[in-house]
Every structure is written in C-alpha cells, then in structure tokens.
Amino acid sequence: MQLSDFNFDLPDELIARYPLKTRSASRLLHLDANGTYHDHQFTDILDLLSPGDLLVLNDTKVMKARLKGKRATGGAVEVLVERMQDKFIAHCHIKASNSPKPGAELFIGEDQVKVTVQGRHENLFIVEFSQPILDVLDQYGSLPIPPYFNREAEDIDTERYQTVFNDPTKLASVAAPTASLHFDEVLLKKLEEKGINKTFVTLHVGAGTFLPVRTNDIENHIMHSEWCDVSDASMQLIKETKARGNRVIAVGTTATRATESAAQANGGELKGWTGDTQIFIYPGYEFKVVDRLITNFHLPESTLLMLVSALSNRDNILNAYNHAVTEKYRFFSYGDAMLIDNQAK
C-alpha cells in the first residue's frame, strides 16, 4: 500500500489546540463493524459498552521532557528527553543550529546543569546529565505538547495533558495516551457501576509517534521503538473476557500496540510480556486481542491512521473521517474521539 492511500484533507481550524472545559464533553463517532458511522457524545460510551466488557488503559505519565538551554558558545538548544537509560544518561532529541558532536557540552537553567553529548544511537543523541534527570526535568522542563498545537505548553496542559489515572511511578512518556484524556473520575465510576471492567498496561510513548512516514511504500517504514509492559494478570483478564463472549476495548493506539505486541511476542498466546516494541499495524494485520478501539482522530498519512484502518478498513475510516470533517469534529490530541469496531469480529 502507498502512503498516499492514507491522505485526507483537514482544515486547520479543526485541529483542537486546547482542551474542552470538561474532559468527557467531547463528541464520539462510532464506526461499527459494517462500516456505518453514528454520531454520539463521549458519555454515550456508557450505552455502547456492555457489562462484562473490559477496558484496557495505558497508565503511563508524561514527563516534562522538553528542556531549553544553550551551548558552551552561547547558541540556543532544545533537548527533548526520549528515554532514560539510567539516573543520569538518556537518549534525547537535540535541536540546535548545528548537530552537536561527541564531547559537546550543553547547559540548562542558568548553567546549573551540564549535559554532555556522548554519541548517537540511531536518530537520538546519548547524553549524560550532571544532575539526576528527573530532578532536572521537574525543575526546568516543560510538557512536550504536540508540535501541531503551534504553541508553548501552558498551565492548563499540566493537568489536561495527563490522564486522571496515570501512575506517578511510571513517569516516562513524552506524549500522552490521548484517547484516555476523555475519561474523568465521574465517567470511570459510572462505567464501573455498570459492570464494565478495566485493566492497565504500560507503554511509554516516544516522540517518534509524531514523526512522518518517509517511504512511499508503507511496508518499508521502520517503526520507532517504545517500551511496554503487559502483566500476566492483564492478559488473564483479557482471556476471561473473551471466553465469556464479552469484548476487549483498547483505549488508544498505545494500549493496542502494547497488548498486540505481547500476543505477538508469545506466538499469539495471551500471556504477559515486557520489552521494546516496534510493532507496525497496518491493513492486513490480524488482531489477536483488540475487539474494539477508543481513539482520537489521527494525522493524515500517519502510522496511527494505518493502525485504525487495519481494525476496520481504509475505505471505512476515510469515509468516517470525511464525515467528521463535514460535521466539524475536533481533531488530534485534544480533539474528539472514535469508537471503532473490529470488522473481522
């Protein structure tokens, strides 16, 4: 399949650059297994799920991963921490007028923190911080909100670009699992009272989620690597849910990638797994875990658009997206949501 097969026209004014006042106030477009779409409010999810169904949510937390600093010569730099190797060493993206060489020193926060470039790993820089990385991020960092917001992070993002159920011990993502941003405590409580179960997995979202696909033939695209953890307990709940005829609903593409990676790593068996995943889901992929997906609207020609096209099909998705544009749904991280049924189930 070609990259251009996943393109669509999106007016700039439909990009949601700020969240709505209330998390659960967004709209929901349901794309059923027949390819028919239905307009809803997000709170209608209560009526669209059944007692005994299982929500799979990603409990990662977003780091204040963006740091502004300068080189020893005074030139401005921006360091985006992608992944921590240990307390002091991280793999980072660095924006500067010239690519820093090994041994180059960068300075953060009025020269209080020295960052030394050690080398490269693929498209990332390996750097060593003079102080513990999480302390540096807490003091000097800002949330790495998506580039299509075209603005700096603001106070509202501190709360709203995090899920209400994030695990503070899992502070390692550079982007939010945005489908989960629609859930507030009231809605989660109502889902629980209806008998809809939930379980948590972890996938630390990397900045690669925003990188464009650069190959015309999508099968030649190499996915970025992200760390995930799916417990045996979560996979057991998934097995039990399927065995009694209920459905597994992944909340977001990250929960999808985590659970499908675990199944793939175990030869299709529903068992726990921890490791780095580069799973690339596009049309033709056979889902082992996910029956339904709650997700936001994704960028044209993105790997996430390819993933949702695998769950339904490309024509269904593009038809639904064209409807969403016509009806002025809000797109991307702070936008509205979709509920997509697996066409094969």
Structure described in brief:
The protein is an alpha/beta fold.
Q: What is the fourth-level CATH superfamily of the largest domain?
A: QueA-like
N-to-C CA distance: 23 Å
- What's the gyration radius in Å? 20 Å
Strand content: 25-35%
Structural class: alpha/beta
The CATH architecture name of the largest domain reads: 3-Layer(aba) Sandwich
Sheet with the most strands, sense and barrel status: 9 strands, mixed
Question: Quick one: CATH class of the largest domain?
Answer: Alpha Beta
Total strands = 17
Question: What's the structural domain tally?
Answer: 2
The succession of helices and strands, N to C, reads: EEHEEEEEEEEHHEHEEHEHEEHHE
Which stretches are poorly predicted, pLDDT < 50 over at least 5 residues? none
Overall, the morphology is: globular
Characterization of the model:
This protein has helices at 45-48, 133-140, 155-160, 185-193, 232-243, 253-265, 303-311, 314-326, and strands spanning 27-31, 37-41, 54-58, 61-62, 66-71, 76-84, 89-96, 105-108, 113-121, 124-129, 171-173, 197-203, 226-230, 248-251, 273-277, 292-296, 337-341. It starts with 26 loop residues before the first strand and ends with a strand. With 345 residues, it is α/β, with parallel strands linked by helices.
Q: Which properties best describe this structure?
A:
Thrombin, subunit H, 6-stranded antiparallel β-barrel, globular, 8 helices, EC 2.4.99.17, QueA-like, 345 residues, 21% helix, 9-stranded mixed beta sheet, transferase, alpha/beta, S-adenosylmethionine:tRNA ribosyltransferase-isomerase activity
